[in-house]
């Protein structure tokens, strides 16, 4: 019995010694040998022991990727290889469990491991994202998949046809965060999804993706019959500086419901034009000052004042010229508001 205990003790010490060697090794050839030997040892281990040793090795590999012994790029590359060699479904599940348990607190190493696992962790991460209710954990997963990058895209695209609306929404969130131009058509295709929550998430994603099809899709949705969708699209255009976006925002502000504009959408369009801040945007805001209505109501004037104040917040000669012209406007209310804006600047 004592002999059996000693053999077990030596067996365990052998693994700890090997892990210690990996931690201190500076020779790439020997480092590679240690990884091969460690992988072979793991095959004979029970699951709980395998997880314990694997996490110890992962900590070392992550440290060596960031700061390899002797500054060796070759060892940094071998550390990445070590992560792939040690990886298993059980290990991925273990780290995702840690992510869920701790949320965003003290999870730098967990995040680094899941990113380094790349394609081995993408599927389980996406599944966890679909099922997770905690917003902070969902954000952490989106960040990890985004850092994994292009490798994750094929699996994300596969999940865009999932029957669960929240799964599709979460995949769109990741695509938008990735922000790769070639992904715009895939995101735009989800705008036909019957669930408005998916449609709104697609709009937000398109606002982050630099592609002509993203601009065109958002411009069209500014006039969507369901108002909250139109508001979301109008706000999303604030990230686009193309002429098409500026013209659409002016049209959105000027479009009338019977006698007057839809003020909620008009104010949103003005905010987006201010955020764009180009000379074209200033011109569009000035055109809003020229709009006419049968009766100049308080709400109608408030919309114009909003446009004038937005012009004043855009830096440049063009906005200064418009303010000076507003001081000489034929409309007394506009003249007075321009004077107030200029007076506040002087003070």
Q: Could you provide a short overview of the structure?
A:
With about 350 residues, this protein is mostly helical. It contains 20 helices and 2 strands.
Overview of this protein structure:
- By secondary structure, the protein is an all-alpha fold.
- The chain folds into three domains: 1-86, no CATH class; 117-210, Leucine-rich Repeat Variant, CATH 1.25.10.10; 214-347, Alpha Horseshoe (Leucine-rich Repeat Variant).
- It has 20 helices and two strands.
- A two-stranded antiparallel sheet has the order 1-2.
- A hairpin with a 2-residue loop joins strand 1 and strand 2 (260-261).
- Helix 1 (2-24) runs parallel beside helix 3, helix 2 packs parallel to helix 4 (73-86) and helix 5 packs across helix 7.
- The protein starts with a helix and ends with a helix.
- Mean pLDDT is 90; it is low at 1-12.
Keyphrases for this structure?
347 residues; mainly alpha; Leucine-rich Repeat Variant; 3 domains; two-stranded antiparallel ribbon; 20 helices; 2 strands; 1% strand; elongated; disordered N terminus
């Amino acid at each position: 019995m004592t002999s059996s205990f000693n053999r077990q003790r030596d067996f365990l010490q052998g693994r700890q010694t090997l892990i210690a060697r990996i931690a201190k090794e500076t020779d790439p050839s020997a480092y590679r040998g240690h990884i091969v030997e460690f992988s072979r040892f793991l095959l004979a281990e029970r699951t709980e022991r395998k997880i314990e040793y694997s996490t110890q090795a992962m900590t070392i590999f992550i440290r060596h990727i960031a700061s390899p012994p002797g500054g060796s790029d070759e060892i940094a590359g071998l550390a990445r290889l070590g992560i792939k060699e040690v990886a298993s479904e059980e290990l991925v599940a273990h780290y995702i469990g840690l992510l869920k348990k701790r949320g965003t607190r003290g999870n730098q190493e967990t995040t680094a491991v899941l990113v380094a696992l790349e394609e081995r962790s993408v599927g389980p991460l996406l599944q966890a994202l679909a099922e997770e209710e905690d917003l902070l954990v969902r954000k952490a997963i989106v960040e990890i998949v985004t850092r994994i990058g292009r490798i994750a895209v094929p699996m994300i695209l596969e999940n865009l046809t999932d029957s669960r609306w929240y799964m599709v929404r979460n995949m769109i969130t990741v695509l938008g965060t990735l922000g790769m131009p070639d992904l715009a058509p895939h995101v735009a295709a989800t705008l036909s999804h019957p669930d408005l929550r998916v449609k709104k998430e697609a709009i937000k994603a398109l606002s982050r993706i630099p592609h002509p099809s993203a601009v065109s899709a958002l411009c069209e949705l500014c006039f969507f019959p369901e108002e909250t969708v139109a508001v979301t699209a109008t706000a999303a255009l604030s990230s686009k500086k193309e002429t098409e976006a500026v013209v659409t925002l002016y049209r959105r502000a000027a479009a009338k419901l019977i006698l007057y504009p839809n003020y909620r959408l008009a104010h949103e369009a003005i905010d987006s034009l201010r955020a764009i801040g180009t000379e074209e945007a200033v011109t569009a805001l000035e055109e809003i000052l020229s709009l006419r209505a049968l009766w100049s109501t308080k709400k109608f004037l408030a919309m114009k004042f909003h446009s004038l104040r937005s012009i004043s917040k855009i830096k440049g000669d063009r906005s200064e010229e418009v303010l000076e012209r507003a001081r000489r406007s034929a409309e007394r209310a506009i003249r007075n508001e321009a004077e107030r804006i200029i007076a506040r600047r002087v003070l």
